[in-house]
Amino acid sequence: MKSVTISKHPLVAHKLNLLRDTTTKPKQVRELVHEIGHLLMYEVTADMALRQAQPRESPLATYQGQELQNRVGLIPVLRSGLGLVDAALAMLPMAQVLHLGIYREETSLQPVEYYNKLPSHTSVDECIVLDPVVATGGTAIATANILKDWGVSNIKFVCVCASQDGLDAFVQAHPDVAVFAGCVDQGLDSKGFVSPGTGDLGDRLFNAVNH
């Protein structure tokens, strides 16, 4: 799949090994998701368009450098997407953060939109969706649909872990959206969770697991 980039960075693999572990505590889960997100963002931003900047003064002489051309929007998908926001903002501090809330209905496994904080008019040229897990692909597809309907065609999608089935479904629905993933697992369980996966990262990030 040409639109999908799977990280080959050894630190991503190392940190994923710790993140998957069921004994990893919420504080470390948050730290690991942040660190993996930071590493993935390096790849996400590698092909961003540049333009000539206004001349400035260095300590020795006038120079003309380059700056990012596009207005960038970060789209964390609530809840778990919040775990990637700080990593993305560390790389793109000028970006707008625009929230979408979409959950997967437990019986049908279909996405349900419950929160949308996009402005009435398109305010960015490029969107980077932050959603740590792509399972069935339904939420990812719905998010891309919403952003395209809003008027943005330049979209990238960042996830820590994805299922192969979910990626296949997403690429079929949105072949023009570049996906950057930390890993891809082959399995999905009966509840639509990636296996072995990372569990419910929303619960694990915010210590909301029911014991």
Question: How would you describe the overall organization of this protein?
Answer:
The protein is of the alpha/beta class and 211 residues long. The protein has a single domain (4-50, 67-205), classed as Rossmann fold, CATH 3.40.50. It has helices spanning 10-20, 26-44, 85-91, 138-150, 164-173, 201-205, and strands at 4-6, 50-52, 56-57, 62-63, 66-68, 72-78, 96-97, 100-104, 111-116, 126-130, 133-134, 155-163, 178-185, 187-188, 194-195. The strands form four sheets. Strands 1, 6, 7, 8, 9, 10, 11, 12 and 13 form a nine-stranded mixed β-sheet that branches. Helix 1 (10-20) packs antiparallel against helix 2 and helix 2 (26-44) runs parallel beside helix 3 (85-91). The longest helix has 19 residues, at 26-44. The protein is globular and about 60 Å long.
Low-confidence stretches: none
Largest sheet: 9 strands, mixed
> What is the C-level CATH assignment?
Alpha Beta
Distance between the termini: 39 Å
The H-and-E topology, N to C, reads as EHHEEEEEHEEEEEHEHEEEH
> What is the averaged pLDDT score?
94
Determine the number of helices (DSSP H or I, runs of at least 4 residues): 6
**Beta strand %:** 25-35%
Helix content: 25-40%
CATH fold naming: Rossmann fold
The tally of structural domains comes to 1
CATH architect. name: 3-Layer(aba) Sandwich
Number of strands: 15
Structural class: alpha/beta
- Rg, rounded, reads 18 Å
Q: So what's the overall shape?
A: globular
